Known about the structure:
Blueprint: E1 7-11, H1 15-24, E2 29-33, H2 47-50, E3 55-58, H3 62-72, E4 81-84, H4 90-99, E5 105-111, E6 126-133, H5 137-146, E7 150-153, H6 156-166, H7 168-178, H8 190-202, H9 207-216, H10 220-235
Helix pairs in contact: 3-4, 6-10, 7-8
Amino acid sequence: xxxxxxxxxxxxxxxxxxxxxxxxRPHLALSVCDPRVRSNDLPQVDPTQAARxxxxxxxxxxxxxxxxxHAIAPHLRPGATVIDVASVKLHPARLMLQILPDHVExxxxxxxxxxxxxxxxxxxHRIAWCPLRGKGHRRLAAFLRGQGLEVIETTPDQHDRxxxxxxxxxxxxxxxxTRLGPLPQLMATRSFQKLVEAAALVQDDSPELLATILRAxxxxxxxxxxxxxxxxxxxAGN
Length: 238
């Protein structure tokens, strides 16, 4: 592959795939692979064609990832880079290392933002970056830094441990709060308003994403159990 990648395919053109396309299309030749969602003007390709890009971004729901990996594996070019953007990292990392051929580079990533929080641009946002195979991750990380992102290099296990708290508890609290029904507004304190604003940031996330965050992260259940136990203890006056 050349020093700088020239082509990038996005497999999965949901809300996050569309966000990637919007911000990266000025810099790379993009194509889209999604049988259910059509791009307005980007080339629409099948998995075989998508696999021929310099960089292949997997933006599919986690339950679909294994099937997509098997579909593209025979068609990936030597030196190409495959990147997933799932909200958990241990499971996708294991699948990619098991299924993808040795001649491709692999990065497990998790953009720590979404379509709502990055509506105004990428600058100032963070992305978790887990290089799994190859050295091309350095130039890709440099490219992302050039777009204003803070690239945080970590491991899949450490990522999932941190996200069990950061995302697991955030979504648990936010979804629970919104299920209480109409929330008070007239006498809301500033701290309560901040809590409601945080809940609003994730209320439109898909059920698939919620399931991934709460159940596909092996570290989430113990953190959740401890949090609920602490909450119950506080409510009981302990």
